[in-house]
Specification:
single chain, 389 residues, alpha/beta, two-stranded antiparallel ribbon, 12 helices, 33% helix, elongated
């Protein structure tokens, strides 16, 4: 099996995918596909101006389009009253091609959790999950079609990797959710999308360039972006160390989340195949360096699996590994495993979850049991499988 072709040496699971012990797990649908249509958010400022000039439009029209997109979440150029009527359709086709189409929308938690299945230009399917809480609204977004990491307890990992998503496909998930909140389409009335987590389908570090471009535009103030603070954006990874190092160098104050799931290499090799390429020491060292550079505590994601990684000795070793660095640099999120169809992995017993937390707390480790929103609609962590219903 060969790894997927990549765009530049800085994207994809680069060295490990070709020379290390890890190989991307590809889906049966993986093929060299055409690229999605170029969208406004895929273009540099210079490219936007160049496109406008091609259409016979002055440069200032680009700023108008940006204001409609980022300031009003609007791509319906037919209603842009400040835009020349004769150019509206042409501008819409050139700058706002239709990238994602809603297939189904499932609702849970009395209307405060909404999982949307999207169809992309090539028929690929991805999912996003919108979750409204009393003090914030979080959107969990996808960055790849499927996932090549192959973690055996994760529904997305079982799909294999089909392809990377474009910046436009990623950002469109955010625009639609922001519009839904503004228009009161989520239980609780009108509101604002406040938080973004790259914890949907895919390994964000495997699509680094598109993800970082999306982060920059999500966090920039209108009309350059949606104005969602970078401090309210979380980028997750199973431990792609070169990606963590690159993110550290960016100097953008996003939160880093590392899906650790095991405190030892022996166990993590079984649960997270990428560990064969970048082991726990390499991953934790890189994550701690991120804390030193950003002063933002790293989230350690840890799916609790009955009898596998949820016993006292696992919690004690995890605390020892984290405290090795000597500062309050990490926050552990133990996650009750969300069951997936046909899996041998099951959720921990409540008493084991409680004991795990207590051991971490006694060791001085900040830890909070993760909320399992959307479990009944397969919208919780590890359950996204992009199935049409």
């Amino acid at each position: 099996m060969t790894t997927p072709e990549i765009d530049t040496p800085e994207t994809g699971i680069t060295p490990g995918g070709t020379s290390g012990a890890f190989r991307d797990v590809l889906s049966k649908d993986h093929a060299r596909r055409g690229k999605p249509p170029l969208h406004f958010v895929d273009m540099t400022p210079a490219q936007r101006i160049e496109k406008a000039v091609e259409l016979g439009l002055p440069k200032f029209r680009v700023k108008q389009l940006a204001n409609h997109y980022f300031g009003h979440f609007d791509v319906n150029a037919a209603e842009f009253t400040d835009f020349p009527a004769a150019k509206r359709d042409e501008a819409a086709a050139a700058f706002f091609p239709h990238l994602i189409t809603e297939v189904t929308r499932q609702v849970a938690d009395e209307g405060t959790t909404i999982k949307t299945l999207w169809k992309l230009f090539d028929g690929s399917l991805i999912e996003s999950v919108l979750m409204r809480y009393p003090t914030r609204t979080t959107l969990c977004i996808s960055s790849q079609v499927g996932c090549g990491m192959g973690c055996p307890f994760c529904a997305t990992g079982k799909l294999g990797l089909t392809r990377n998503m474009s910046t436009g496909e990623i950002v469109e998930q955010v625009r639609v959710a922001a519009k839904m909140m503004r228009d009161g389409e989520v239980a609780g009335g009108e509101g604002r999308l406040s938080n973004i987590v790259f914890m949907g389908m895919g390994e964000p570090m495997g699509n680094y360039n598109s993800v970082l471009s999306a982060v920059r535009q999500i966090s920039a103030m209108p009309p350059e972006g949606f104005g969602i603070s970078a401090r309210n954006i979380t980028v997750s990874t199973v431990g792609v160390v070169p990606g963590i190092k690159k993110l550290t160098a960016e100097g953008i104050p996003v939160r880093l989340a590392v899906s650790l799931h095991a405190p030892s290499d022996e166990l993590r090799d079984e649960l997270v195949p990428m560990n064969k390429r970048f082991n726990t020491t390499q991953v934790l060292d890189a994550a701690h360096d991120y804390w030193l550079a950003s002063k933002r505590r790293v989230s350690i994601e840890y799916a609790l699996m009955r009898g596998i990684n949820d016993q006292a000795e696992h919690a004690q070793l995890l605390a020892k590994r984290l405290n090795h660095y000597g500062d309050n640099w990490a926050h552990v999120n133990p996650i009750p495993l969300n069951p997936i169809e046909g899996s041998k992995w099951t959720a921990s017993k409540p008493e084991d979850e409680k004991q795990f937390l207590e051991i971490l707390h006694r060791a001085g480790i900040a830890a909070t049991l993760r909320d399992t929103r959307g479990q009944d609609i397969d919208g919780a962590c590890g359950q996204l499988a992009a199935k049409e219903r």
